[in-house]
Automatic annotation (TrEMBL):
<keyword id="KW-0049">Antioxidant</keyword>
<dbReference type="GO" id="GO:0045454">
    <property type="term" value="P:cell redox homeostasis"/>
</dbReference>
<keyword id="KW-0560">Oxidoreductase</keyword>
<dbReference type="InterPro" id="IPR037944">
    <property type="entry name" value="PRX5-like"/>
</dbReference>
<keyword id="KW-0676">Redox-active center</keyword>
<dbReference type="InterPro" id="IPR013740">
    <property type="entry name" value="Redoxin"/>
</dbReference>
<feature type="domain" description="Thioredoxin">
    <location>
        <begin position="2"/>
        <end position="157"/>
    </location>
</feature>
<dbReference type="InterPro" id="IPR013766">
    <property type="entry name" value="Thioredoxin_domain"/>
</dbReference>
<comment type="function">
    <text>Thiol-specific peroxidase that catalyzes the reduction of hydrogen peroxide and organic hydroperoxides to water and alcohols, respectively. Plays a role in cell protection against oxidative stress by detoxifying peroxides.</text>
</comment>
<comment type="similarity">
    <text>Belongs to the peroxiredoxin family. Prx5 subfamily.</text>
</comment>
<dbReference type="InterPro" id="IPR036249">
    <property type="entry name" value="Thioredoxin-like_sf"/>
</dbReference>
<dbReference type="GO" id="GO:0042744">
    <property type="term" value="P:hydrogen peroxide catabolic process"/>
</dbReference>
<keyword id="KW-0575">Peroxidase</keyword>
<dbReference type="GO" id="GO:0005737">
    <property type="term" value="C:cytoplasm"/>
</dbReference>
<protein>
    <recommendedName>
        <fullName>Glutathione-dependent peroxiredoxin</fullName>
        <ecNumber>1.11.1.27</ecNumber>
    </recommendedName>
</protein>
<dbReference type="GO" id="GO:0034599">
    <property type="term" value="P:cellular response to oxidative stress"/>
</dbReference>
<feature type="active site" description="Cysteine sulfenic acid (-SOH) intermediate">
    <location>
        <position position="48"/>
    </location>
</feature>
Amino acid sequence: MIQLGNSIPAVSVTLVTKDGQEATTADTLFAGKKVVLFAVPGAFTPTCSAHHLPGFVVLADEIKAKGVDMIACISVNDAFVMRAWGEQQNAEAITMIADGAGAFTKALGLEMETGDFGGMRSQRYAMIIDNGVVKQLNVEAPKQFEVSKAEAVLAAL
């Protein structure tokens, strides 16, 4: 599993943009920026839709006031799903990232098998990245939602 002080891997991800989608690599996307990245097991799922993403939407201005250049949400979903979910959640302040095949999630060592829920998904986590280097990593215990919520990240900043 990725550790504090490790660099974000050069793995392909899909950035959801206003005009569609853009293929990029995670290391390029996060280079030269202070980023809060949080991952959810799935878009449109109960905790993710009712609490995780909305918490970052509500606290986006406060988080960015701490010197954060980008707040990003990633999930093992395709770009079309991430776009629809972001629109449904009014997440204009959040950069939505699709990890369709789970390559980024696997490269971090943060994948989990969920069986019939959706197969391989990401564990729930939040990290603070500074110029491509992991400075804070909060991985949730199974079926928990405490250390990766927006309030915990804001307190860590």
